[in-house]
């Protein structure tokens, strides 16, 4: 009898499960559900903001998920999903149901099999499921006590009211994990989470190996110190930002200020980028992105160094008391001792990674300094606003960047000998000018006379830095402008006229009295590119005339001012289009192909057809400017070198300069450069134009698959067109695309002798009869984050 009762109970359970699936139960209307929900039924929040139901990212009901999305967006906007019940397993919507059981458990069934559940329980028939206008799906019991809520189980999206942080009581991290791709919502390769250090920091990490991709820095009471853009009024409108820290939990969240909010969300994208979106003017707009530029990538310049973002590129500088070490970044010139009691102020920076940091509480700057002095392991300190106050660091200082607006002051501990030498230096620069005062007064008359008699031309002598040491060119005569004219043209270097900045200084937009628009390149006094680079660029551009090279209009050398006046390029630099998904759609294949050919012809002119034979050494997207008709022009010749002789000529430098990701392996490893170094950079540049991706993006998680190796892998597997930018939408010539990919793979060969000349490159691009075929097996060299070289086999060469 007992066995019979047990059998009947088991049979009853099976019947109930099957009935829950096959019987179409009446779903609760509006925003609540008391029983079940099947395909075709949805919950809609009371204010018609969000909707819950079955959806498929690939428009296939056999691959469906339970999710929440914005309900009432314009038809042109695609469905924006903010939460999913089960990411690792899809269901057949016609055979699945979401059920609220009598014991208070929310379960997703497929053909009677449990796929996902909340794992909750409550009193019999007392639970209710409700979708709120905040996007939170809440399961409550009869006393309105929350049993479970979707806000505690985020996917890739942070909505106002959700927490991003850490619960110390349960050891649970509130974090964001992106979709694997646009059509695959399974957990992706990255995670956005808060590390519960003594001074918590918000990181973008790769899931595999926990490699740090980007970092916000600690909270200063108003925003994260590494995100001064959060202080922008557009971010603050209708949304308030809060940071909570106590013994139980630490988390960041935002919430709406009014009852009728603008829609906003933060999303961790498939590539690891964290973006803040707002729905404005009938479309979603990006307000904040992390990483936003090259300096935002974690520890971009290595240890104990500062990354500075310029208009065309970034620059890296060792902290005071440190010197460059190509393997790790920068290392101390002299070791610290416990008696070291001097500090160097590094202003307006994102403070270092806080993994080795300690909060000392809200005390004064002097008290913070004393605490650091009393701790022999303390290497730096800072006082920031917000909950942490005084922070001290030990060990290496990682991931620093400078800001022109924002940041905090960091005080770096130095050996006594370093500060003693600095005091002597400061004393000498004060005393010597006083002693030489009389001599300077005597020189004033001469300087004034020279100023009055200054000719209307800039005259420069250029020394060729080539094999024939000591050869000097004839005098170059350039149109000159007086300083007053340039200041008027640029509105006294106003912020509104600022186009950007780089290692040399700042570039300003200007307009002369005759209406001609100009770009003024102003050398900063503390520029990493000094007078030599200034004269080098000025002299080179003066000698070059080509439609694909930026045109020199004139110069201004007056007092301490050094200005280069160039033609104004309406569309700025190419990287502003390629890396921006909105702007990249403006570049169809024909425009991209014309840009590639234009760059190639400009580079061919530099290498072979100009009066001088020039190696650019810093060819990259940001150094390609676009005029109003989208014609490309190569710019920035500050580190270019002149050669005489044949194409095989090489030179060596002890200090390779340029941009990682574009530098040829022989140049990066041994300082050897030649015309083939530019060819390598051109190959990288073409792949970026075709794919819309940066070379280094692929190296964040797998150092063997940067963009170069990824392109070759797709080619070898017969899938080369998969590398194309999604915005091209198949509006391209397959023959031209394949020719460009083949040509770029030849250009990035590890052995410089296996790369084509620019003459051959132009022939490949412009002649349909020029063929490429497999012949031998050179290699593609890639670098990982530690600078270690790896190779992938590559077989391709040029035939007539």
What does the average pLDDT come to? 80
- Enumerate how many helices there are, as a single number: 15
Work out the number of β strands: 52
CATH homologous superfamily of the largest domain?
A: Transferase(Phosphotransferase) domain 1
CATH architecture of the largest domain: Orthogonal Bundle
Relative strand content: 25-35%
Strand order of the largest sheet: 27-26-34-30-35-32-33-31
General shape: globular
Description:
- This protein folds into five domains: 15-142, Bulb-type lectin domain (Agglutinin, subunit A, Orthogonal Prism), CATH 2.90.10; 154-292, Agglutinin, subunit A (Orthogonal Prism), CATH 2.90.10; 302-420, no CATH class; 457-567, 2-Layer Sandwich (Phosphorylase Kinase, domain 1), CATH 3.30.200; 575-799, Transferase(Phosphotransferase), domain 1.
- It is 22% helix and 30% strand.
- The protein contains 15 helices and 52 strands.
- The protein has an eight-stranded mixed β-sheet.
- Strand 19 (201-206) and strand 20 form a beta hairpin.
- Helix 10 (589-609) packs antiparallel against helix 12.
- The chain is globular, with a radius of gyration of 31 Å.
Structure at a glance:
This protein has 800 residues and is α+β, with helices and mostly antiparallel strands. It folds into 5 domains: 15-142, Bulb-type lectin domain (Agglutinin, subunit A, Orthogonal Prism), CATH 2.90.10; 154-292, Agglutinin, subunit A (Orthogonal Prism); 302-420, no CATH class; 457-567, 2-Layer Sandwich (Phosphorylase Kinase, domain 1); 575-799, Transferase(Phosphotransferase), domain 1, CATH 1.10.510. Helix content is 22%, strand content 30%.
